[in-house]
Amino acid sequence: MELALETGISVQEFWQLTMKETYMTIKAAVDRREQARKARIESAWYGAAFSRMKELPKLSSLFSTQAETESRAKESAKLFAESQERYDVIR
Question: What is the pLDDT, as a whole number, of residue 89?
């Protein structure tokens, strides 16, 4: 229960959720924290790398293209749909 509270689940929610729902909520919070940690490390790495460069790359070269973003969004939607199907089978 302590881990659930740390991830933002209230006591009332904790007792209303199934074990699977609690696990999924906690896992999602842990994943978000890990993504944020990786983003901070990446930012620090880029900051250090850029500070050593004589000339910075074009800003647009550092971002994903529209096609890459759409491709990742479609893949994410597909994975979400598959996980929903698996979850529905379990229930």
Answer: 67
Q: What mean pLDDT, rounded, does the chain reach?
A: 87
Instruction: Please tell me the pTM assigned to this model.
Output: 0.56
The whole-angstrom separation of Cα 3 and Cα 49 is: 37
**24-60: b or e for each residue (b if 16 or more CB lie within 10 Å)?**
ebbeebeeeeeeeeeeeeeeeeeeeeeeeeeeeeeee
For residue 33, what is the enclosing H or E element? helix 19-52
Per-domain residue ranges of the chain: 1-56, 63-91
Backbone angles phi, psi at 17, to 5 degrees: -80, 150
Token pair recorded at residue 14: 């904790």
